[in-house]
Amino acid sequence: MTGPDQSGDHIRQQLDGLGGRLACGCEVDEVLEQAANGKARQRTEHQRDCPACQAALQEFSRLWEPVRRLAAEGVAVPVGIKAAVTYQIGKLVSDAGYSLHLAEAGALRIAARVIAHIARDAASSAPGVETAFGRSTHRHAALGVLGSTAVIDLAIAVHYGRQADVVAREVQRRAIAAVRTQSGINDITINVTIDDIVT
Amino acid sequence: MASDVEDTYLVQRAQEGYLDAYSELTDRHGALAYRVALRLLGNHHDAEDVAQESLITAWQHLPGFTAKSSFSTWLYQIVTRRALNRISRTRTTESLDRIGEIPDQAPDPGDTAVRRRAADAVVNAITALPPPQRVAIVLHHLEGLTNAEVARITGSTVPAVRSHLLRGRRTLGKVLQEWR
């Protein structure tokens, strides 16, 4: 059996024709879809014996190769996206902060979310902690000063098999020490909730 | 901080006001937002804007997110919608003509250069497609989503997605044939 002409020009003509069919009667669009989805080798019973389908599958697979390469290509993500998003969200949430010192030279204040971040980082370093997140219990406060007592909630996920209360106490100890050292706030309450176990 | 916790856990914590949990979600899915925006819009500047806007919008609407779909599917929806809004605001006749911008053959086409130009031709051809076809091609052929997922993200139906894909593939096929 002599195969039909499957040269580039012929393929182009097939793509140009709406509702085009191959010489065997199969729809061009279906064969193109099969090749574009990377299923050119998964031939139907008809395609196993059909030179027209086999040639078209081969040709369309080659044709689609630049699209496949583009899909596999990594995209370099601008480094500024996360910082910009975090900054914008920080502004949306609240500008509330803890008062450190009131003096003639002016007030010292530290944003509640910064305190939460310090506590979270300290909690993450405790043995048995998979992940930790921190929030100020004053998260709904409006713009203003929250006072000089820091109250932080920490939600942590612990590794399976660790003694939860021991992990939680160590998290409290580390978080209090870190907030005290890094912020100067001395009156600190850390509430720890273990809400997930990771195996 | 990298961790093995699932997105649903991070979403719940973020809904409770843990900003760091959302920061982790941004780490995980920021690339998705930017990549899809870039493929749909064709330029880095607009893609960066849309990715940022989408991640902030997702945060703002997080209290209403009921986890009927995954966070990534939801983010695909937001990015796609915002990109389409931007396309409709900036669409010009010139952009529709870009389908004809196939680079000339270089006199000494090294393999990498040829591939790069072929990739550029694909990007130009995709960004010249009508928006519904463009979205379908990007989400299905570049992001690897199923027709049903594309339909869910675009608020369309599977037959409609198939139709957009069919027409988009036909157009791309012709462009790629010119390029060969």
Average pLDDT number of chain A: 82
Number of strands of chain A: 5
List SSEs of chain A in N-to-C order.
Answer: HHHHHEEHEEHE
Q: Structural class per helix/strand content of chain B?
A: mainly alpha
| Main pleated sheet of chain A | 3 strands, mixed
Q: What is the overall shape of chain B?
A: globular
Backbone CA Rg of chain B: 18 Å
Overview of this protein structure:
With 199 residues, chain A is α+β, with helices and mostly antiparallel strands. Helices cover 46% and strands 22% of the residues of chain A. Chain A contains 7 helices and 5 strands, in the order αααααββαββαβ. Chain A has helices at 8-16, 28-36, 45-48, 51-72, 80-93, 112-124, 164-183; strands at 97-103, 106-111, 129-136, 149-159, 187-198. In chain A, α7 (164-183) links the parallel β4 and β5. In chain A, α2 packs across α4 and α6 crosses α7 (164-183). The model of chain A is unreliable at 1-6 and 139-145 (pLDDT under 50). Chain B has 180 residues and is mostly helical. Chain B has 9 helices and no strands. Chain B has helices at 7-15, 19-41, 44-60, 71-90, 93-96, 111-128, 131-142, 147-154, 158-179. Classes of the chains: A alpha+beta (199), B mainly alpha (180). Chains A and B meet through α1, α2, α4, α5 and α6 of A and α2, α3, α6 and α9 of B.
